[in-house]
Amino acid sequence: MGLFSFLLGEDARRFIKRKDSDAGEAGRALEELRGALYSELRTSEGAKRQQQRLCGPVVAMTFNFMVAVGIILTNKLVMGKGGFNFPIFLTLIHYCLAWLLLAIFKAFSMLPASPPSKSTPFSALFSLGVVMAFASGLANASLKHNSVGFYQMAKISVTPTIVLTEFILFRKTISLNKILALVLVSMGVAVATVTDLEFNLFGACIAVIWVIPSAVNKILWSNLQQQGNWTALSLMWKTTPLTILFLVALMPLLDPPGGLTFQWNANNSLTILVSAALGFLLQWSGALALGATSATSHVVLGQFKTCVILLGGYLLFKSDPGFVSLCGAIVAICGMSIYTWLNLRESHETHATQLPKARARMTKRNDEIPVITRTLSEVKKFPVP
To answer: Is residue 20 over pLDDT 80?
Structure first.
C-alpha cells in the first residue's frame, strides 16, 4: 500500500515530469544539432563557409598554379603532336566535360547548394556565362593570330583594365603602393616576355576585344562569390551551359574548317580527354582563387606563372631566353612579392580592426549566459503542480 501511494503521490508525479522535461531538452538539443549540420552542408551559406575554411587564398592559388602549368604542357601536346589545331573546339570540349562532371555531382547530391534565385539577378549569371565564353575563346584566337609578344602585351593590359573597371562599377580603389607594385610587375613581365611586336590588324582587334571580357570575367567571378553566397562549383553549374552555347556560336567564326572531320585515334583522344579534365580543374581552381582573393591578385598570379615557366625552362631545360628576359622575370617576381606582402599586411590590419568587435560580442554573450542560468534555476525552484 505504501509503494502504491508513493507511485501515485505528488513527488512521483514531479519526478516523472522532470524526466520528461529533460528528455524534451535533449530532443530540442538534437534538433538544433541536426539543423546546424543541415545549415553547414545543404545551404549556400554553409557551403560558402566550408569553401572558405578548406580553400584559403594560399591553397586556392597554389592549386590554380599547379593545374595551369599542367594544362599548358598538355595543350602543347594536343595542338603539337596531336595536330588538334582548333582552339575554340578544344575549349568547347573542356566546358562540355566540366558540365558533365557537375551534372554527376548534382545527381549524387555532391554539388553545393546555390543561393535563392531572388538573391542574384539572372542578368549577372547570364553576363558571366557570356563573358566566360568570349574570354576563353578569344584568348586562344588572340594567341593564334598574334605574335607571342603582342599576346603578352594584351595580357599585361588586363591588370589596369581590372583596376579601372572595378573603380567604375564598384568605386573600389587600391593604395598607391599597390599601384607601384603592379607597375613593377607589368614592366618586368613585358621585359621578360615581349620579344617581338609584330602587328596584325585582325589579331590586334581580337586582342583588344578580348581584354574587356577577360577583365569583367574575373571581376564577376570574384564579386559574386565574395558578395553573395555562391561557391565555385555552384556558380560553374549555373553558368557553364550558357558558356557552351556561346562557344558553339564562336566556333565557326574563329576556328579553321575541319574540326568536325578530325581524325580521332586512341592517343589523341586520351590526350584531349586529359586536357579537358585539367580544363575543369583549371576553371574550378581559378574560381576558388578569385573567390578567396581578388581579380587583380588572380591576374598577378597568372603573370607569376609566366615568369616561373620562363625561369624553370632556363634552370631545368637549359633554354636561353636571354639575359634581359631573365632580369625582367626577376623584377616581375620581386614586384609580385611586394604586392603579396601589401595584401597580407592589409589583411592583418583588417583582422586586427575586426577582432575587438568580435571580442565585444563574445563578452556580451558571456555576460548574458549567467543571467539565463539564474533565470532557469529560479524557474526550477517553483514546484511543478
So the answer is: no
DSSP 118: G
Per DSSP, the three-state class of 51 is helix
Q: Which of 143, 297, 288, 130 is nearest to 221 (CA)?
A: 288
> Is the pLDDT assigned to residue 273 strictly greater than 70?
yes
Condensed to tens digits (0 to 9), the pLDDT of residues 124-146 reads 889 888 998 888 888 877 777 77
Which has more confidence, 266 or 358?
266
pLDDT digits over 32-63, tens only? 555 554 455 567 666 667 776 777 777 888 88
CB burial of 250-266 (b: ≥16 within 10 Å; e: otherwise) equals: bbeebbeeebeeeeeee
For 307, residues 6+ apart whose C-beta sits below 8 A from its C-beta are: 188, 189, 192, 329, 332, 333, 336
Burial class (CB in 10 A: 0-12, 13-18, 19+), 377: exposed
Q: Hunting for cell 603582342 — which residue is that?
A: 150
Instruction: Pick the closest to residue 209 from 141, 112, 265 (CA basis).
Output: 141
Cα atoms in the Cβ-side hemisphere of radius 13 Å centred on 155: 27
- Strand, coil or helix: what is 13? helix
* Residue 280 cell numbers, joined: 575543369
- Whole-angstrom distance, CA of residue 73 vs CA of residue 80: 10
For CA atoms 114, 119, 122, 127, give the dihedral sign. Answer: negative
* pTM given for the model: 0.70
